[in-house]
Amino acid sequence: MQNRKTAAAIAVAVAVSLGASACSSDSDSGGKGGGGGNAKADAGLSSIVNASDKKGGTVTYEHSSGPDSLDPGNTYYGWVQNFARLYARSLVTFKPAAGKDSLQVVPDLATGLGKASADAKTWTYTLRKGVKFEDGTEITSKDVKYAVERSNFAPEALSNGPTYFKAYLEGGDKYKGPYKDKSPEGLKSIETPDDQTIVFHLSKPFADMDYLAAFSQTAPIQQKADTGASYVQKMVSSGPYKFSAYDESKGATLVRNPEWDAKTDPIRKALPDKIELKFNVNPTTVDDHLLNDVTTADIAGTGLQSKTQPKVLVKASEKAKTDNPYAGALQYLALNVNVKPFDNVECRKAVQYAVDKQSMVDSIGGSVKGDPASTVIPPTVAGYKKFDLYPSEGSKGDVTKAKEHLTKCGQPKGFKTTLTARSDRPDEVTAATQLQGSLKAIGITAEIKQFPADKYFTDFAGVPNWVHKNNAGMMMMAWGADWPTGFGFLDQIVNGTAIKPSGGTNLMELNDKGINELLVKGIGTVDTTARNATWGEVDQKVMENASVVPLFYRKNLLYRPDSAANVTVTDAYLGMYDYVLMTSTK
Predict the structure, then answer these.
(1) Do the beta carbons of residue 34 and residue 52 sit within 8 Å?
(2) Residue 449 and residue 470: Cα distance in Å, rounded?
(3) What is the membrane topology here (predicted)?
(4) Helices 486-494 and 513-523, packing angle to 10 deg
(5) DSSP per residue over 156-218, as a string?
(6) Which tens digits make up the pLDDT trace of 324-344?
(7) Are 449 and 476 in contact (CB under 8 A)?
């Protein structure tokens, strides 16, 4: 099993695709500030803008809502995965670097990438010696084992995050997690023969294991310090920064961790002295702070609001401070197959034809925000196959065909349903409103209900009982790859095993035997070309099911303030800036 070559091949394939779609190939890393001097628009796509090795200063991040959780074992948000690398060291991680190099998986807490058995069912990692928690305790393989156990197997306390370990580890379907299972050996399929060695025994082949090991779920947690859901209030750092303050509604302050040793960490420079993270800032205010150089970055990484775009796009000196990467993400509409009448595939197909995707893109700011989509997998993710099962002229919808399918599903006059969206994401609300108008044209009345992003999955759209009770047949959704391959993109949104009582991301509640089996087949295929071909097959089957309505392939219009230094887009984390590299001249 040549996992290193596999990872490299995937990275190159994705990087080539991203490079082809970029607006500029400028590689100038000079300039006085984020956009000053010689820096140009899109310079951050392939270079480090305003490069600096100077220590000191304060980096300030703002977010319009907040995280699902900053607990490394209880998060699924891409920006948290990116940001958590500052205080939580996973076994491996994506390289903090510009351009295609940001897709490279490199050792972090481990000394190297995973060593796989010939059948890709047993993976071994060796930990670095001398790495310490902020309390001075040396990190061991048992701390990593415990972190995985709590992150995947204790939904009663930690409901967020992916469930790959639970799905693929031997006995994962029966293990009750460390809060209920008090046996000293814990989950037997994770072995720790000594303090530096951890071995994962899988029930079936998993060729993307190094990508999974890059999740913050493998960041070590001391069992003695774990307090379940409230651990986020007092986390113990394994990275260069530790928390000096945390408030769920206001934000957090991170300062240097004196126990961090640069000799044990080849990928982090840890330049800023302090990092301020502020929650629940109005999204327009976040933009204003960026343009006025008050804030270093919008940590959500989803780009400027549509209202702000004209301020920077019409002025050359301001546009020079922007980067417009593809996010490797899809904005889509989830149709829940257990909410009537969407249990009928013909009703789902009616919606596929009803949506005016081009007008939706125009409503949120045009091409800088994305392109109309026809597949689940975006073009920048390995495994993408171009096809369109529900074509329309100019991607503007086909009312005639939509009505034909409404008649076939026994709803010729249309019906009423609920459409959910995230209240603190103005572009998503705008897109939902535009969608509402398209649906009205074929007789479907969709009542929009809005909820905050940090509770969207845990309390509303990701809770099947709530969805069924509230007739939420339609849910606005955005998704980026867990890692830049078809499996990393698809599994947690279309696999039946990803359906959870709370915090779920398979909002359609899609549980199709053929799709589930293809996912298992694909991830067990060692040959990269054959594996990627399988992801295209899965995509087509999902679209035949019609429960996912692809709306647009997302792009981010990012802005670099003059004080922002070491600014570069990381392709591994949904086209946002790399927060491990970022620092400030302030």
Answers:
(1) no
(2) 10
(3) Lipid-anchor
(4) 150
(5) TT---S--HHHHHBTTTTT---TTT---TT-STTEEEEETTEEEEEBSS--TTHHHHHTSGGG
(6) 999 989 999 999 999 999 999
(7) no
Phi, psi of 315 (to 5 degrees): -115, 120
Contact between 239 and 264 under an 8 Å Cβ cutoff? The reply is no
Task: Dump pLDDT digits (tens) for 31-81.
Answer: 444 544 568 999 999 999 999 999 999 999 999 999 999 999 999 999 999
Torsion-angle region of 197 (φ positive above 0: left; ψ -120 to 50: alpha; else: beta): beta
The C-alpha atoms of residue 48 and residue 381 are separated, in whole angstroms, by 23
Computed from CA positions of residues 261, 251, 223, 163, in that sequence, does the dihedral angle turn out positive or negative?
negative
**What DSSP designation does 459 have?**
I
> Which tokens is 15 given?
């990087």
In whole angstroms, give the CA distance from residue 381 to residue 251.
33
- Indicate the SS3 state at residue 541: helix
State CA 371 to chain mean position distance. 19
**What's the gap between Cα 470 and its chain centre?**
27
